[in-house]
Amino acid sequence: MGRGDVKTKKGKIFAGSFGKKRPAKVKKNVAPKAAAAKA
């Protein structure tokens, strides 16, 4: 297991892909929907 193995985190970083071992960054919502609805 190493850089060539796409089933590992290191392999995913090397291949530039995402998956269960290396999830893509999730964008966080800055303003909550409840506060926006009240305003």
TrEMBL record:
Keywords: Ribonucleoprotein, Ribosomal protein. Residues 19-30 have a biased composition (Basic residues). InterPro entries: Ribosomal_bTHX, Ribosomal_bTHX/bTHXc/bTHXm. Pfam families: Thx (PF17070). One of its GO terms (cellular component) is ribosome. It comes from the Bacteria. Residues 1-39 are annotated as: Disordered. Belongs to the bacterial ribosomal protein bTHX family. This is 30S ribosomal protein S31. It comes from Chitinophaga skermanii.
